[in-house]
Amino acid sequence: MQAEKNVLLVDAGNVFGYPGVQSRLKSATAVEAMARMSYHALNLSNLEFSFGLDFFLNTAQQFQVPTLSANIVYEDTGDPVTAPSQIVSFDNFMVGVTGVVGKKYEKNILESNTENARPVTVLEELTALQQQINIIRDDADILIVLSNTGVERTKEIAQQINGIDVIVCGHGADEIKSPYFINDVYIVKAGYDGVDVGKLILSLDTRNNIIDAQGTVIALEKTIEEDSGILALIDDYHKSLKEHADELFDFVPKTPLSGGAYVGSATCAVCHASQTQQWNTTDHAKAFDSLTIKNQDYNPECVSCHVTGFGYVGGFKRPDYTSEMADVQCEMCHGAGGEHAANPQPGYGQISSLACIYCHTSDKSPNFDYATYYPRVAH
Ligand code: HEC
Ligand code: HEC
Ligand code: HEC
Ligand code: HEC
Question: Which residue's alpha carbon is nearest to atom 39 within ligand 4?
Fold first, then answer.
């Protein structure tokens, strides 16, 4: 897209994730990626407060991603917490960008902002927006509002506020496949989680008035070439997880619902040699390697399906402590086997096809079919 002329890249906000150690690392990586892509504006929204406003502002500043908000101000002085708007100049026209977050998310913002942070207030978005537009409208040929308010509220903004050309809507999983046109305002919205990107092509006449707008939502599928720089950045993020292993893998193991503790396949092998031999030939027996070669062995989001008993007594704890519990071992299908191993009885380990789809989800194993998959692991 950057090969095209006069491209403005903006985000309506909630680029950050929910609070958590891994989420914080991932969120900072997302902002760094936006910097590499030369984003022009990121609208401050509720999730940007997940690790405290200062963390967000420092991260954006470190990577030089321009942030804005017309309606989040410091409670004590009423000063905006970041630039309320900005003007981006192109060859022969200027674009003004401003943004708001829904007043209805103020509670989330106040709750997630860290304890000692300087308190903020979210102003009613229509009033704050109209004020900001009055200030920049004359300097901009095209005026774009980033609206992290959801679709319904965004429609009200289009109807009630004058001077807007385009609203990039955020909040919620819904997307607008082709732009709405309400009160001379184009409203666009892409999906979420970075799975697609919205593209709006504006055609201008000689006096820089919009004469046509074509909008699409482009799914970022495998057919779209990957960027080696961004891939390297993501790889660095994966590698960095190892340095944070103490925080990421800090949990108290739970007791399995039945069967006692997890004991591992080496214990089962003593009495079930033939099944163990067969299991060793399956991909389940090397499932953890698949993470290691991708530098994702310290990624808690991956391990649960690629190891045995993650989070449970006797199960996998972290790569450097419990390598014997790596891979998809016997107990991931048969259930925790501590009691059975100590006192072998018939009846243990009965399983149904449901045992498979705990891991073979439609997302992670789209071709899964019990009839064709089972014979490949049967023993
Ligand atoms: C000390 C030996 C021993 C160990 C260790 C052991 N088993 Fe068994 N297992 C047996 C015996 C014996 C039976 C057969 C019981 C019967 O049919 O009387 C059995 C039966 C089973 C069955 C079939 C149950 C049934 O009713 O058909 C499964 C599945 C099984 N074991 C899985 C495991 C797994 C998984 C482990 C490791 C967590 C394990 N076993 C550890 C001895 C053992
Ligand atoms: C704990 C999670 C988990 C469970 C439960 C599980 N699997 Fe898997 N399975 C995996 C993972 C992870 C892989 C990929 C291993 C790799 O290559 O890294 C896999 C791979 C496979 C493969 C090889 C696929 C290929 O492309 O070659 C087959 C076949 C398979 N599983 C069948 C099953 C069946 C049948 C069941 C249920 C009886 C089952 N699995 C239960 C996690 C699981
Ligand atoms: C919900 C369970 C689950 C989670 C979580 C999961 N995987 Fe898997 N993974 C699977 C299953 C099941 C397969 C086998 C898919 C098949 O062959 O049908 C698999 C296969 C793989 C493979 C080998 C096949 C391939 O596509 O190249 C790799 C590599 C892999 N996973 C990496 C990861 C990474 C990295 C993560 C974390 C970002 C992850 N997995 C998280 C279940 C999971
Ligand atoms: C991918 C899932 C899966 C894994 C992993 C797995 N099994 Fe099984 N196992 C099955 C299924 C399915 C059956 C068929 C019995 C059933 O339907 O309950 C079975 C049957 C068995 C039986 C009974 C065999 C018989 O002849 O009646 C034993 C014993 C057993 N498994 C032991 C093991 C041991 C030991 C391991 C690890 C080395 C292991 N299994 C790993 C799915 C699995």
Answer: 330
Q: What CATH number did the domain enclosing 135 receive? A: 3.60.21.10
Does residue 32 have its Cβ closer than 6 Å to ligand 1?
A: no
Examine the domain organization and report whether 213 and 342 are in the same domain.
Answer: no
Does 268 sit in the ligand 1 pocket, CB within 6 Å?
yes
**15: in domain:** yes
Mean per-residue pLDDT for 68-76?
97
Residue with CA at minimum distance from ligand 4 atom 1: 333
What tokens appear for 106 in the block?
A: 């103020």
The answer to whether the CB of 359 is under 6 A from ligand 2 is yes
* Cα 349 to ligand 1 centroid, rounded to whole Å: 8
- Which CATH number do you get for residue 314? 1.10.1130.10
Q: Is 325 in the pocket of ligand 1 (CB under 6 A)?
A: no
Q: In sequence order, which residues have a C-beta less than 8 Å from that of residue 252 and are 6 or more positions away?
A: none
Same structural domain for residues 368 and 266?
Answer: yes
Domains in the chain: how many in total? 2
Quick one: 200 and 300 in the same domain?
no
377 lines ligand 3 (CB under 6 A): no
Ligand of minimum distance to the alpha carbon of 306? 2
Domain shared by 186 and 295, yes or no: no
Range of the domain at 127: 10-219
**CA distances to 49, 68, 72, 136 from 78, in Å:** 18, 15, 9, 20
Is 242 contained in some domain?
A: no
For 194-249, the pLDDT digits (tens) are 889 999 999 999 999 999 999 999 999 889 899 999 999 999 999 999 999 999 99
Q: For the full predicted model, state whether its pTM sits above 0.70.
A: yes
